[in-house]
Design goal:
The chain is of the alpha+beta class and about 200 residues long. It has three helices and eight strands, in the order H-H-E-E-E-H-E-E-E-E-E.
């Protein structure tokens, strides 16, 4: 960023600082996307395609932790007796100690009117991740922090698709002292009449 004087720079920044900040963010997102296209974990990507039916450039340094289908009591009752309300889930992690980042993608059928409310998304997060993510202390499980910082939701329009973004804090419950921030994107897949959530949480 160049300016003929400190004063003119300060004046320009006061008038256009937010535009400049957003420009830098867009360029960084493009750079990251280009990097991951050339450095992708094919095993994790294939699991995502086969289990959930969507595609994502998963970083090469992430390893596949889990590729599964779980039952979920929060979902509406199935239309046929032989069906079981279920969630399809893929979990990956870069496993880098203090720089650890986890990626969880899960999908489920949901026809309720409140499926994109913050309460509904929080409830699904707690039930799904509480079932599959634990820590070294027996009985510990993933949960959402509601006392210190309430999760916040905003709506986005990504590629003409309605998306709910939720940002909040996670913590381990049941005896383990672990936690950190998370961000999730949830969108409706109209072709398959289901909801898909992709979340990254940082330890």
């Amino acid at each position: 960023i160049q300016a003929p004087s400190d004063e003119e720079f300060a004046a320009y920044w006061l008038a256009h600082g937010e535009e400049v900040r957003k420009w830098f963010i867009r360029q960084e997102l493009k750079r990251q996307a280009a990097f991951y296209r050339g450095s992708t974990n094919t095993q994790a990507r294939t699991a995502l395609q086969q289990t959930i039916g969507c595609d994502m450039w998963i970083p090469e340094d992430y390893m596949l932790i889990m590729d599964t289908v779980i039952e979920c009591a929060s979902l509406a009752l199935p239309t046929r007796e032989e069906d079981t309300p279920s969630v399809r889930l893929v979990w990956c992690c870069n496993n880098k100690g203090p720089m650890r980042r986890d990626l969880v993608v899960y999908s489920y059928d949901d026809t309720s009117e409140q499926m994109f409310s913050i309460d509904r998304l929080n409830a699904m997060r707690d039930e799904v991740l509480g079932q599959v993510i634990s820590a070294s202390v027996e009985g510990s499980y993933m949960g959402t922090e509601y006392k210190v910082f309430l999760p916040e939701m905003r709506t986005l329009n990504i590629d003409s698709t309605y998306t709910a973004e939720v940002r909040g804090l996670w913590k381990m419950k049941g005896g383990e002292a672990m936690g950190g921030p998370y961000v999730s994107h949830t969108w409706l897949d109209p072709v398959h009449a289901r909801v898909v959530t992709a979340e990254v949480f940082v330890f």
